[in-house]
Amino acid sequence: MPPVSKLTKEQIMYHFISGYTAKVAGTEMGVTDPVPSFSACFGEAFLPLHPYTYAKMLAELVEKHKANVWLMNTGWSGGKYGVGKRMSLKITRKILDAIHDGSLEKAEFETMPAFNLRVPKTCGDIDSKIFMPVNTWNDKAAYNDLTKKLGGLFIKNFEKYASGTPKEVI
Questions:
Q1: What does residue 75 show for φ and ψ, rounded to 5 degrees?
Q2: Is there a contact between 79 and 141 (Cβ–Cβ < 8 Å)?
Q3: Is residue 169 in some structural domain?
Q4: 168 in a domain, yes or no?
Q5: pTM of the full structure
Q6: 170 lies in a domain?
């Protein structure tokens, strides 16, 4: 996933319903390799209603307040676990500062294949190659394989919410 992407209304709902994160070594006992994890609305166990209900409420609030929604990845960059490294906190802070001061909103964007995410081409003095994850991997075939695998996990996870979620969100 890219370090940051700007979400559309439908993507806000999709990613909120998906509730994707990864358990990584050092943050979870017994975890030695990253483990993809999905929890609808990032709190599935506590949801009495279909997740789309909450996603729709979130999207309505975003629209009402004309808020921008950004998807941040503070996870892995530059290769799979053991090859790449965690996203730099210094870079994450610079991206957050650019969101807060409004400069990232003015950036030029490109679309990341597979996930259809709008990714900025530049952000201040940050090396622009990090924004499109494939650019940070030496092994492009491994990147493509892992991207395909993660995309498949998103699709499989969302199957349980497809009933009750409008097609434009899926």
A1: -90, -135
A2: no
A3: no
A4: no
A5: 0.91
A6: no
* Spatial CA neighbour of 36 closest among 162, 147, 168: 147
| Token pair for 105 | 């909103």
Q: Looking at the domain assignment, is residue 18 inside a domain?
A: yes
Nearest 5 degrees, angle CA 142-CA 145-CA 147?
A: 105
How is residue 118 written in tokens?
A: 């709008």
Total count of domains within the chain: 1
Q: Is pLDDT of 25 > 80?
A: no
Task: Show the domain range for 66.
Answer: 4-161
Q: Which two tokens stand for residue 59?
A: 């999207």
Which CATH number belongs to the domain containing residue 118 in this structure? 3.90.228.20
Residue 104 predicted with pLDDT over 80:
yes
| Cα–Cα separations (whole angstroms), residue 141 to 18, 112, 135, 138, 157 | 26, 16, 12, 9, 24
Q: Is 102 exposed, middle or buried (0-12, 13-18, 19+ CB in 10 A)?
A: exposed
